[in-house]
Amino acid sequence: AQLAVNPKGWAKSRSEVSLLSADPINDPKEILRRALPVSSPGLDAVQSKLYQMSKLFGGSSAVLGRDSNTMRGTTGIESSKDPKINDIGELKTLARAAKRSLDTNMPEIQAMSDGLDSKKKARIVNSIGSLQQELINLVSLPDNPNPRSVYNMQQKALDLVGDIKENSIKAFPFQIPGELQSNEQLKGRATAEIRVRTKDEGGKPKTVTVEVVVDGYNAPITAGRFVNLAKSKFYDNMEIQRSDGFIVQTGQRPGVEMDTIPLEIMVDEQKTPIYGFTLEQISRFDERTKLPFNALGTLAMSRNVDDANSADTQFFWLLKNNDMTPSGTNLLDGRFAVFGYTTDNADALYDFKVGDVIESVKIVQGMENFAPPAAGGRQK
């Protein structure tokens, strides 16, 4: 059965599409915050001003974003560099604007807790109070503050915005099509810790941990498959199977086959994912995806190039490369199902080599959002 149609009947050329990427976001946490299925213009204004501060840090994503083969760092201040603030006056101006937006829109933001259970309501109330305090701290900064402390304040404030938004979600935002209901599903988000046994530059064995956030709000079936496999320890003791400077890939276990899952792509301004087709196949490649390949450590399902619906167990991390995957204009968006991002220790991905071993993939948060498969997803 056809799972998607082309409602537009027109398309733009690839050259036209390349002009659409004005200042794309390459911070994985910010991408995730913006992809939440919740609308609050007042809180969005606070978030926007806070995120604009990132460009004022010497170690921000705008300066040290991993967009080349010669420069490391994803977002925030690199631990190996002394941070700096490029314009403290502009930063404090943004802080005042963020605080003004919060104060002006407080009734709207407080109303986000309406209709929620007491636990979620209390979390939102506490987060709003903490956000107010962080903004007061930012507004009251001296003229020569400690840059790392300021950066931590900004990041904490942004995290609080995300907490308010995520806790305000009352129910899963859409109905998965009936013919796909038998697949495993993640109706919300989950956090996984992935431990990999590798070697340092001297050849000495070491184990590193990366943290990923898996997004079921925008890719419930794809994220559900990953969580189901992690839960069953499918990936434990599996080797890294590809590492070529472009992606790091794993997930194939010899002799094991599983039911495939459909390609799943959520685009902006649409409430449900497109299933079964690439955006190019339905002449919609000019549209932005909710979960773009913009960040180092973008997590996506592998599939056969000639079959959009052939994903099963293999997944890959993206290693950003300016020539092949420029943020906002790369050829991966809309062709592969992104289902999460690496939110901690993403730089470690560059050191993963073929033969390194995934010791474990452990779901440490969000397992309550997982629904096992009614049918399908079984080993053949």
Automatic annotation (TrEMBL):
EC code(s) of this entry: 5.2.1.8
EC class: isomerase
Organism (species): Lotharella oceanica
MF terms (GO), sorted A to Z: peptidyl-prolyl cis-trans isomerase activity
Name of the protein in its database record: peptidylprolyl isomerase
InterPro entries: Cyclophilin-like_dom_sf, Cyclophilin-type_PPIase_dom, E_coli_cyclophilin_A-like
Pfam family, one: Pro_isomerase
Keyword Isomerase in annotation: yes
SUPFAM superfamilies: Cyclophilin-like (SSF50891)
